[in-house]
Specification:
This protein has about 325 residues and is an alpha+beta fold. About 45% of the residues lie in helices and about 15% in strands. α5 (about 135-155) runs antiparallel to α6, α5 crosses α9 and α7 packs across α9. The chain is globular, with a radius of gyration of 20 Å. The protein starts with 10 loop residues before the first helix and ends with a helix.
């Protein structure tokens, strides 16, 4: 079911105790988790109320990463008030101008904004990662397995699970050798804000891990929620490599992580439909499948591509809700 956008009953006391007694609470957004967001308006000032209800959500990772990013010069929302017991945070409001809608309204800004987003990653990757759990082989396998756990049953497929694990195991060495960086894990045009001064602000980074530098780049350039032109993907991948000195092995890692991430997203979007009743997500899957097939065409993905060719026919690749309804 869709999340209710009625403020939590604890919100008013939380605001009162933190100097926002007369503030008006306005629904802002829900997301693919249990988190909900509200805009808090008090005269000329405003902020964002994050409702991260325990036990479903734990806001402490968001708090830790937000502070780390701010301490290192990156634009994470400032923390204005926190109540961990209630799962309520009052944070800086970056406004409504997301990178996605800005580009949709002004396509001539596409190259500029993607370049700025890539440059943030270049700067981020110059730092040692924060105190984060490793984005290790086990986690990559677990995520890739969401496709076989959720998508395949939804479209009526009984697949070779052991072969799937073995195929991924054969390619993951490609991404296990790079020095780890802070990986925000959901770095894309709907989580990058244009602040009032025109600079880019960061959101939705609470699941950050220490992993391969290609991950956030592929998250940005193979965006599940909007089409990224192939020329922009090629240009921005080259921009990142030129700025960091990354070699050709980076290309292989980029596509391995692209395939892994896209397989994960297909599984997650199916789970959001089947388990959580969020029926808008399956319609995004055809785009993700296109990215996935693009990545599988690379030689580094040959074992995984072979598994897909054997186990998931082209007629079963797409919107799982539509396929299941045929």
């Amino acid at each position: 079911m869709a999340a209710s956008m009625i403020p939590p009953v604890t919100a008013r006391d939380f605001l009162d105790s933190n100097g926002w007694t007369d503030a008006v609470i306005v629904p802002l957004a829900g997301d693919a988790s249990f988190r909900r967001y509200f805009r808090v308006v008090d005269g000329s000032r405003q902020a964002v109320l994050m409702d991260a209800p325990p036990p479903h959500e734990d806001p402490r990772p968001f708090i830790g990463i937000a502070r780390w990013l701010s301490d290192h010069g990156f634009a994470a929302p400032a923390l204005l008030a926190v109540d961990l017991d209630k799962g309520l945070l009052l944070i800086e409001d970056f406004g409504d101008a997301r990178m996605r809608e800005t580009i949709d309204a002004a396509p001539h800004r596409t190259e500029q904004l993607y370049a700025e987003a890539v440059d943030i990653l270049v700067a981020l990757h110059r730092h040692q990662p924060g105190d984060l759990r490793a984005y290790d082989r086990q986690e990559l396998h677990r995520e890739a397995g969401l496709l076989t756990e959720w998508y395949c049953p939804a479209v009526g497929l009984d697949v070779d699970l052991a072969g799937y694990v073995a195929a991924w195991d054969a390619v993951l060495d490609t991404v296990m050798t790079a020095a780890p960086v802070t990986v925000l894990r959901d770095y894309h045009a709907e989580n990058i804000m244009l602040k009032a001064d025109g600079s880019l602000g960061l959101l939705d980074f609470q699941d950050a891990l220490a992993g391969h530098p290609a991950y956030d780049l592929v998250s940005l350039l193979q965006d599940a929620r909007r089409d990224v032109e192939p020329a922009i993907e090629t240009q921005m991948l080259a921009r990142y490599k030129a700025a960091t000195g990354a070699g050709d092995d980076f290309d292989a890692a980029y596509h391995v992580l692209g395939a892994q991430r896209n397989a994960k997203i297909v599984g997650i979007f199916t789970r959001l439909w089947k388990r959580d009743g969020k029926s808008r997500y399956p319609a995004l899957c055809p785009r993700v499948w296109r990215y996935l097939e693009q990545d599988l065409a690379l030689p580094a993905l040959e074992p995984v591509a072979g598994w897909f060719a054997t186990n998931i026919p082209s007629s079963k690749r797409g919107d799982p809700m539509a396929i299941a309804g045929r």
